[in-house]
Amino acid sequence: MLQRLFRFALTGLANSAVGWAVIFGGLWAGLSGLVANAAGYAVGLLLSFTLNRTYVFGVTGAVGGREVARFLAAFAFAYGVNVAVLLAAQSVLGAASPWAQLPAIGAYVVIFFLLSQRFVFRPAVSE
């Protein structure tokens, strides 16, 4: 389980780095902020799905529409919790406090990992 969580964290770092690169590359190429942001998130989510499916959870075979829908639902739910925790932390620490991001990110990672493991992907091998 710890190895899977470590791989999940590495995957998150990788898709964040690639997503940011697409956003900043798009801005550099003259795209609007909204278009660059959408492109970065689209690429980041695609990479996240692919790496989580294969590298983290060891799922092989054809990708199904239900699997993609479960992934997007898990992402949306985890992101919603992230925003709720962020707003709660900001009410305590102040709206501009970067420290408010820490519990929000932590909540997102834990919830998205658990949903990915239990709801989205079916591990090829049990641990």
What would you say this structure looks like, in words?
By secondary structure, the chain is mostly helical. It folds into 2 domains: 1-61; 64-121. It has 4 helices and no strands. The protein has helices at 2-28, 33-56, 65-93, 101-120. Helix 1 runs antiparallel to helix 2 (33-56) and helix 3 runs antiparallel to helix 4 (101-120). The N and C termini lie close together (7 Å).
Helix content: over 70%
Secondary-structure content class: mainly alpha
Strand content: under 5%
| Poorly predicted tracts of residues | none
- H/E element order: HHHH
Largest sheet: none
Radius of gyration over all CA atoms, rounded: 16 Å
- Label the overall shape: globular
Multimerization status = single chain
* Amino-to-carboxy terminus distance: 7 Å
How many strands? 0
Taking all residues together, what is the mean pLDDT?
Answer: 91
Number of domains: 2
* Continuous helix count: 4
List its traits.
globular, 2 domains, mainly alpha, about 130 residues
Reconstruct the topology from this structure:
Blueprint: H1 2-28, H2 33-56, H3 65-93, H4 101-120
Helix pairs in contact: 1-2, 3-4
Short description:
By secondary structure, the chain is mainly alpha-helical.
